[in-house]
Amino acid sequence: MPDKQNGRGLPVIAQVALVFAGAYLLLRFSVQPPIPSSVLGMYMFFVGVSLMLFVSSDDDRFAEFKRPLIQLLTAREHKVPRLVLGTVFPLLVAYLGYAGAHTEIAPPGQQRTVHPAPPNEIDFKGKRIDVLTAENPFRHLAEEEPEAFREHVARGKDVYYRNCVFCHGDNLEGDGLYAHGLSPIPANLADPGTIAQLQESYLFWRIAKGGPGLPVEGTPWDSAMPAWEKFLDEDEIWEVILFLYDFTDQHPRSWEE
Amino acid sequence: MMRGAKGGIGIIELLAITAGSIVVGAAAGAADLEAGRALYDDKCAQCHGLSGEGDGVAADALDPRPRDFTSGSFKIRTTPSGELPTDPDLASIIERGMPYTGMPAWDFLGDEAIANLVAYIQTFNEDFADPEMRVDPVEIPSPPAMTEESVEKGRQVFVENKCGECHGDQGRGDGESAPTLMTDAGIPIRPADMTKRWTFRGGSSRSDIYRTFTTGLDGTPMPSYADSIDEEQRWQLVDYVYSLSEDEPGYGSVVVAQPVEGPLSLDPGDGSFANAPVTRFPMLGQVTDPGRAFAPAVNAVEVRAVYNDEEVALLVSWHDIAGRREGSNRPNGRDAAPADAALSDAVAVQLPSKHGGTKPYMFYGDPANSVDLWFYEAGANEARVYLGRGEENLAPAPAGGDEIRAKGVYEDGRWQVVFVAPRGSGDAQRVPQETFVPIAFSVWSGLARESGNRRAISSWYHLYLAPPDTGEAYKAAGMMGLGALVAELLVVASVRRSQAGGQS
Amino acid sequence: MLLVAAVLVLAGPALAQEGGEAYRDFPIVGSRVAIWVIAQLHLLFGAFVLAVPLFAVTIEYMGMRTGDQRYDDLAHEFTRLLTMAFSTTAIFGAMLLFMLLGLYPKFMSYLSSIFSATFLPYVLLFFGETFSLYIYYYGWGKLSPRVHLSIGVLLNVIGILVMMVANAWVTFMTSPAGIDDSGALVNVWDAIANPTWMPINIHRVIANVAFGGSIAGAYAAFNFLTAKTDEERAHYDWMGYIGNFVAIVALLPLPFAGYYLGREIYAFNQQMGITMMGGVFSWLFIVQAVLIGALFLAANYYLWLGMARIEGAERFRPAIKYLLILLTICLMIWATPHSMVASLEESRKMGGAHHPVLGFLGVMSAKNTAVNLMILTTYISFLLYRRGNRIATVAWARSGNIAQVAIFVGAAAVVIFLGVYGYYVEASVRIGFSVPQVGAVLFAMIAVTVIDAFLFKDCRETGGIRWGEISPRSQYALLLLAISFTWLMGLMGYVRSGLRQHWHVYGVVRDTSADAFTPTLGYATMVVSVTVLIFFAFLVFIFWLSRLSQKQAYRAQS
Predict the structure, then answer these.
(1) Residue C297: which of A53, A187, A255 has the nearest Cβ?
(2) ipTM of the complex as predicted
(3) Which residue segment(s) compose the domain that A37 sits in?
(4) Which residues in chain B have Cβ-Cβ distances shorter than 8 Å to C343?
(5) N or C: more exposed end of chain A, with fewer CB within 10 A?
């Protein structure tokens, strides 16, 4: 058994280091845009834990893994490297401490719920609208009167390009003219993770009440999304919702019966 | 990645269906006009209009306005001044888009779809169909090496040809005639700010700039210099312009203030600012509240900060093609200023009124969480302080507002305004050290008739007062190093003990 | 205990109604945290007290069937822990009751007005549980095995009924039913059988079995690590193995029970459903993913280390690497958040809080796929462990193995296909996919087990299992298993309870106290962690006590 493992050539500890470094390089550079450091850190933690589990899942391998470490710490003939390591390690830690006090000043990443829970109902210009059950008054036309439906979609398109395009972009991908200066960045409406996950009534709430209507977990103070009730009437909002789904070829979320 | 692929598939399907139903048996490689029309109506008509006149629903909010394809006049071309662009010219601009305008890059459409669009766009002006009207492009040679010498010679070309009359002596677009410039259609136009290459509509490579000098920007006051400046000098001019700007805007998210000894100066040229790092923030149109500004005059501010024990000083600077000190301005209000009122330039810095509470709403705060607005008005050359509880609820600060001092200087297309404010203490703590304090900016250009809600804004960013270097880093290093040494000795001792135990 | 019961029935409503105060304050930590911690501890001990008899009776039954005395001893040893834990549970229950009455008088008076009819049955059931427990414990070896086993079964039935009554009170707070618009009681049975009652009952029974197994494993690990002799080590090694086995078998169906509960919450009130999966609480599901990942890793790791004591299991060593790689990738997918914590620079590059590539891993389709594959992988580990020292001798061994591999590959293919296809269909259809995914995995596990049973009917054994010769690292894995389980119960319980947000009884009794806000994730995690710590401190004490009593008996005998 030990023979077989020695046959590999590389000591276990070096193999572990190589795999860990390889995984880091792969995750760090193969995915574009880069994985945020919070997630990358979590991934590397899993990789590290798995490697340790692998090494220690076999007594022989674990012993072999530890052997060079133990020898380094105890054997007489390793006195010189031991002393070198013994000096270099505290110095390295000291340097890290020094560098830690000198890192680039960056504000902490923020945690934000992208689709927070809506209120049960909202007041839209004096009219109560139930955010959970309200239906798009034009949606049913899709089957019944396709031509009238297309007309509403076209009107929604006009609304979009008069109002929304500046942030959400010509192709609805959240990359409009002002997107580079906003944080949070405008929602990418073509992403399957945004409007396709939501009901039309939810969109109505988000559009009508905008950033100021968000609950705290949605960080309302940072959102540049206007409360569109200041600019649009009810029909226009429902129409622009029709357009959003139509243009991106998506469907509103429907609840199970 | 997948998203792009999905979009691509959708369009190919669309094309296949249209193509299949209408143009059966079209020659391979020939552009498909019907497919081009379908795509144009779907993606382009909202700005450029169904009939190509540049009058789509979004057009009025855009500056520069969308191209009028019926005019036959195109800015970005490889053909001589006044000529029609080539097919590759049109394809290239669709593919690359025009930075800092409403025209995004459409590269994801794919070459075939773009070729169809190019063909369809040419149907709006009959000249395109006339082979006589189509001319060969000018040659754009590969750029020669850029040297210090070529830059210096380019500077002389710049002076000799009076480029500064429009673009300003420092290239910031603030030439004497800048405020009066119009397009052929009679719409005011701002000369390019050469210190921000990333905003060049036709692209920012040296070849792109060379092309602009050679062929001019048709329909604008920018002429072709093909006849008046020879090729070598044009390249020198390119190199000079190129040397005026960084490659990328490098927008940041934190103003890091440096500690200084002694009182803070209101002079932007004061030496203490020179050592403070500059952070550039993008400025956007305020389109969230009524009185919207879709195309503000200012697209970025640069900020530096220093502080001492009592006060913090912010140096806010931005480029505008003219500095207006006449008249007055106001931070809020939905209505446009009266046409006969003289509007001065202005800038505002916004911070939460209370340190450590919930962040206020980025547009002048909210009823529960107010902001302090330091409003510098160039007309008065001083700051006023407002307390904001929302866009409609902004009032002069009740007391102590005059403790904030400000002075501004406009020179060579650049405003530099210094604010000096007390940091406060105890409950009135405003800017504590080593804390990320939210900060946001607004800028009004008097020339562009900006006032109240019609302004350029930034998102919330941060102001951070970096601690003075008191050797904390060395202390940390010492502590951690010592800790590591002790831990190391403990591990060695325990391993040795266990090994010795194991062997005996 | 009698006292507690009496107070519950008689003094409860009386105490609650006196005075007009809605809330009273608890010093230092505040009322909410005080109730939170005590309720959590009561719940954990309650789970323990329910889980151990389930476990003990099962083991006793196995002992009867196999005639192996070890099983009977194991069950007996376990029941000894029970007597101590039972009184601890009751003490915490009494504390919880007194504190609720004292701190939330108005709310308790309302709850009493709805559920007073259930108090007497609860008390009676409680007596029943107490008596059957003591008979079960003291009657060990003295009653006929059949009678004894029947009492054990009775004990479990009563225990589960006690839990169901308490569940009715708790679930009523989340999904009230059987009341009119003003909140007054209309039908007590409807109030009991409210929409989330049965899902919680099922979820808790299954979870209790898994919890019991993991605590048994921790008990064994604790004793293994402190054992002095080889016999002791062999005994506790075997015990740990049984505990781990029970825990993992019960863990596998748990996600589905949880899914049922989640669906009922959505059905009862969509807003609550959205709060749970899309709001602040969604972050706890990421924490949950990491903890369940730790559970899977620990369980697999334990089995792999266990192979070292099976003669002949070396054959399967090389497979570990691939199983581990698969598990790690699934775990990474499962823990990938949908909205990521990112700095401004990072989100500028990503174009939002959704990563354009990793975003695909952040949604339910990917996560269901990952967890199903993890279950399959764990099952394969277990299969290899079982085969460690056996070689099939039947004529069709080769084709049997091929069939098993084909079933695994087929099930994995179905799971992955549906996972990927889920991106192309509507949410309501996608949610439906989880059923066939789970179905494929369950089918694979059952089919492979059946084939295995015949395959190894008259197999050749290459060697025995050297109980006790397992690396101590495996025992730490068992401890980790128990801690992760406990932590998970605390966190998920917080989600269920916190979902009500500004309500004591959702939509009926509003929480007007100063604590009517959702605490931050970090704070909630800290409270749960402290509770888990207290629980384990008590547990170690109980383990120690149980060993102490054994020692005295040993001396007396000698």
Answers:
(1) A53
(2) 0.84
(3) 2-100
(4) 253
(5) C
